[in-house]
Amino acid sequence: MSAHVLSSFEIALVRLLEALEAEETPLNRDAAIQRFEFSYDLMWKSLKHKLKDMGIACMSPKSCMKEAFKQGWIQDEALWLAMLHDRNLTTHTYDEALARKVYRNLSTYYQAMSEILESIKE
User: Fold this and answer.
1) pLDDT tens digit string along 7-36?
2) Which CATH architecture does the domain made up of 3-121 adopt?
3) What is the distance between the alpha carbons of residues 80 and 87, in angstroms, rounded to a whole number?
4) Which end of the chain is more exposed for a tag (fewer CB within 10 A), N or C?
C-alpha cells in the first residue's frame, strides 16, 4: 500500500475536521467542501492501493466502493453512494443551495471516511 497516499488521506481528514469545527460562514463552508473533495479523492485512492495489494483491481471511485463493501469495510452502501454523488456534484457545479445541502452532510461523511481509514490501516 502506498504510505504516501494513506498519510495524505489522514492529513486531509484532519483538515476536513478543522473546517467542520469552525463557525459556519460562507468561506468556511466552501473550505469544508473543498477539503471534503480532497479527502474523498485520497480515500478512494487509498482503497485502490489497499485492494491492489490484495490482488483486487478497481479503477474508479464507484468500483472501489463496491469492493470495499464486499470486504466489509463499508457497512452502509447507500451512504457511500450518496457521498460519491455529492462529491461529483460539488466538482462540476457551484450552487449556494447545493453547497448548504452538501455541507450538512459533511460531518456524516467525515465519520464514515474516518472509519474506512481505520479499516484499511489494519
Assistant:
1) 999 999 999 999 999 999 999 999 999 999
2) Up-down Bundle (1.20)
3) 10
4) C
